Amino acid sequence: MVVVPKMTSKEAGMRRLVQASAGVLLIAMIVGAPVWYYAYQRKHFRNFRTVRTGVLYRSGQLTRDGLKKVIREHSIRTVITLRAADDPSEMPPDWEEEEFCRKEEIYHFRLRPKCWWAPEGDPPACENVRRFLEVLDDPKYHPVLVHCFAGSHRTGAYCAIFRMEYDRWDNDEALNEVFNAGYEHLYQEEDVLGFLQNYQPRWKGSDRHSVSTSRADTQSR
Question: Taking the model in full, what pTM does it have?
Fold first, then answer.
């Protein structure tokens, strides 16, 4: 018969301390893992979403690692950026992305922010919309990734236009998606809101906001 020596009070205390520490560590891992994953996703894949599989994806500004992964996993052939420097003489804030796309032979288009409203005639943003549609009309550019900085405002507006043009959503459906995807002030920003509310897709027989023009001249490859 084996006699197991009793633990001293000091040993028992140490054992309880180890068990308690292990429990705290386990809880920290359970709670911390989702927090870490969210932070990682937010940093590298800011607001990345699928609009239509194999055709259009949307995001905010991705890190280099995030962009590489998205390109690899979704076979991205074209990147449309809606960002530009405030001063046209300065380098755009995502210049490194453009250089990366050029080296990787990925089409890259830069649509500089333009006003969505005009006192008369077509708003300046119509030029960008035409270029956006030229790219999406041509399957050779698919799949396409479109992004701004946050991935919810400018990006949301262009994705609404995609929905109305290619998925034949009505204006309210498209606006609801924009709002639910993070454009929380959409209904207070009358220029963008008015443009999208009044947008008439080409399949309705209207050329307003979407008349064809020459191929986008901001392409680089």
Answer: 0.75
